[in-house]
Amino acid sequence: MYEATFEISGDGGYSVATAATEASVELWCNDHCDLLHVRGPDAESVVERVERLVGVRERLDRSAEVLLITDDCLRRRETDAIETYLVRNDCLLLPPLRYEGGAKVCRVLALDSASLTDLYRELVDDGTTVDVLSKRHVNVVSEGAPLSPAMALPDLSPRQYDALRLAVEDGYYEIPRRTTTAELADRLGVSRRTAEEHLRRAENKLVAAVFAHLRGRGHGHGGGRTD
């Protein structure tokens, strides 16, 4: 099997809803409505755009996060939804769809590499702007995840990802550390407190996901140290 991640620019109402914002949307389609997870500092702006597009039936608010159940399914209002291309090219969508920065990011699974190539070519031939973010052969199926342990890792917000990326690149996690959170904040263009918050949230998500995977593999609760 083969798995690819495509970024499709300007495709669909939810892509437009995230344009010029720092929010992201994760979508699970239920045919008659959509389940949306909206995150980021501009979440409310995106929610307002979604409400104009398909209506909002229910919402649950948390800090910088909103969970929405829409009145209607966006796919029923679009004639060129990605799902129609997937069916024609024998590909499967790995939910959720993710929207950010005016683009849609979708993970696609196919039994052979040629199907992914055909899917890409058809999208481009129809005038769609597509970037291939990744493509790989999948040969391991693990417990607790559709394809691999990596797929169980959490999605980080754009700010959380940037903070973590800079921390790794600048040696924040090396021993001894080669940078400080104050220096990271300067590079990110935010206050030190904000940079530290982005970093802690990213770390919390990653640690929780990795620990859940380790626990699922049956690691014991005790034992001596081996390092």
From TrEMBL:
GO BP annotation list: regulation of DNA-templated transcription
Q: Which residues form the HTH bat-type domain?
A: 156-207
Q: Which UniProt keywords apply?
A: Transcription, Transcription regulation
Name a GO molecular-function annotation. Answer: DNA binding
| Record domain HVO-A0563 N-terminal: where | 3-147
For this protein, the record's Gene3D superfamilies field holds: Winged helix-like DNA-binding domain superfamily/Winged helix DNA-binding domain
Among InterPro entries, the record links this protein to:
HTH_bacterioopsin, HVO_A0563_N, Sig_transdc_resp-reg_C-effctor, WH-like_DNA-bd_sf
Protein name per its UniProtKB record: Uncharacterized protein
